[in-house]
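ok posting inputs for the aspartic acid job
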Amino acid sequence: MARIVQKFGGTSVADIDRIKAVALRVKSEVDKGHQVAVVVSAMAGVTNQLVDYVDSISTLYDAREYDVVVSTGEQVTSGLLALALQDLGIGARSWLGWQIPVRTDDSHGKARIEDIPSADLIARLETGEVVVVPGFQGIAPDNRVTTLGRGGSDTSAVALAAALKADRCDIYTDVDGVYTTDPRIVAKARKLDKITYEEMLEMASVGAKVLQTRSVEVAMKQGVRVEVRSSFSDARGTLVVDEDEIVEQELVSGIAYSRDEAKITLVKVADRPGVAAGIFGPLADANINVDMIVQNVSDDGARTDVTFTVAERDLEHAVATIEKERGEIGYERLMSDKNVVKVSVIGVGMRSHAGVAKRMFSTLAEKGINIQVISTSEIKVSVLIAEEYTELALRALHTAYGLDAD
Ligand code: ASP
Ligand code: MG
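and the output
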């Protein structure tokens, strides 16, 4: 007998028939004698609709009320799934975020889970009852409803699995696992049987959308075994595990890309101490995340160019923030470009092997693709290139690292 958390994403609960199909999947685990807690997302599209409602009333909304509105999608699906299970003769009860309670901090709209008391839920599981939990919801220290940020149901599921000391956390979604790269672009992409937490974290943070980044952080920290799998087939998915569980580690496990990037270049900035702080300080104060940064050596010792990237949706805000500081920073010209994509090769294998970056650069060079900015971490090399080369770059790199399916 095992204790399992199953999480079903929006497409898996998109309509009544699919919710009934989810109930059957839950039943099949119950019939094997397992204890099952289920976390559900809102029906596909519902959260977007709720966000639109909020936006259409006020653009500078009160985040507390935003949470009151957008948390409701999950409440609907948790009640419906409990009913569908009862209809199959299975004892089931929904537990809303405030009832458990899923305690979070007070950052409304992007709250972090702090604690999930588990004794009551475990007592229910031990009687054979299925516990149904709406993902995405929590409750702040002052008892107001919070939500965990878009995609946050993944984090609800993993945190619940940790709190319940579950044997596994199965994340059911509309893809059948984690791929070496986006299969819609590279036909030879392969499904990975296993991937390490660290790699999954990098993949998620640079654009692979299968799991919310935060959920991978929680899984890694708490050692939760996560399997990403499809709710539309019975095939095994991808296990996200510790590095020592992977016997034959590839040099590069995956190639991710993000189109949500924009580049800003400040031309002829004074080359003196304090300039970087003068640029990036105000951006940080404005809550704008800066990702890649390059600063050139100045040829005259007096002026230099600084290039950096921000999320595309933050571009206007970033440009306005910099222009306000123009007097302080002292640059000649500001250029911005949305027509860029960040491509990243990821693999824990590169910690112990040289040459990964070199292969990336030479592969792109052979295709005549110019690299605009480079950044690296211990297990990742990222480059910024013009967006029109996305497909070409992904395919060429996928082949160059030996990832193509036969
Ligand atoms: N329904 C929420 C969203 O779409 C949370 C989730 O599904 O993970 O972001
Ligand atoms: Mg999701």
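notes: The chain is about 35% helix and 25% strand. The chain has two domains: 3-244, 248-401.
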